[in-house]
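[Q] Does anyone have a clean structure-token version of this?
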Amino acid sequence: MSTRASAGPGGGARLGIWQLMLLLVTTAVIQDSSTVDHWLARLVGVHAWLPVVLALPLALGGVSLLVALADRHPHRDLAGILRELLGPLAYPLVLLIALVFVADAALTLREFGLASGELGFWGFTPFWVFATGMALVAVYGAFLGIEVLARVNSFVLLFMELPIGLLFTLFTVNHERLVRLLPLLPRGFAPVLRGTWLMLGVFGQFLLLLVLLAEVHGGRGRAGQVARRGVLLISAIALGHSVGPALTFGPSVRVINWPLYGQVRSIFLARFIANVDWMVVMLWVHGFLIEVALFVYAAARLLTTLFALRSPRTLIPGLGALALAGSFVVGTTAEMMLRRRWYEDAYALVALGWLLPLLLLGISLLRGHRRQPAPAPGGPSAGALPAAALEQGSRESAG
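[A] Here you go.
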């Protein structure tokens, strides 16, 4: 196992469990408000809220599965758990997971670029200009450390995005009609099941909990409780994302590429505040930046543990450059990008976020690993300093 990775310029993260959870909420919500919202509207139309409701109990069970696995291996992050349970097979699997994380960052960069071009955010600015700018800022945020990233995200999410979301709700309520939710399931229940599967991929991003839980200090024992509250928060926001456009546009929501953006574009309060879509752009910029930075950092963290490196910082610039390069090949049109995002969420994240933890927990149970007691409140987390790091520190002190 590796030594504890420095999470910030001063070294030594002081990441709270709620800060980590808000990072996961941001990555899930940004996906739901853009590509997932698009796919749910296309699949289910005005009943895009049904997959969210059906996925909720499964997501609550899924995070309980992740927390149970973390409790059985309190001194290990995901890479450490894989090494402990799978031995040499862990190396190619961790490399694959890191590649999926970098691919997610690349898709996010491309997604923002194509959405910006299609919706005309930046006029005729070439894609590579703002993709490169976003990648540089995200890599810089990841390089500063997970603690800095979490603090900035918590401030923006709680004091800017949530109030703006409430304002949007008030602005659009006069345009919404319950009758637009009819007809009821004209295409049957099969599209609803496909949409539910996609939502499971969104919640599959909670796999990052196993990667980053070792960074949490004080409150790690509350991970299960906080994770379940995070799932409820994501579901509540996702319901708003799906119900709002359906109540505004009715069955025609199926042909709108970005339903939430279209709903905000319909707001007209007065001539001097007729266009408030810039607020959506601001929220998307923040969400996409956090997602790119978080997945790049998570990939670096996995590889740091796997190869016993001193710090993930040395890997972050290279992984960021790989994500930027990948953003130029993942899809040249919005339709291609949306389809690749479907593959990422509905296949890769479902496999990694659900099937992999289930397999690992089964192996852990068969090998007789017991659940460890939660650390004392206010003290360092059980996963903050692996045993190998303690041994190395002892040797250095003796020397």
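[Q] Thanks! Anything notable?
[A] Residues 17-377 form a domain with the Amino acid/polyamine transporter I fold (CATH 1.20.1740.10).
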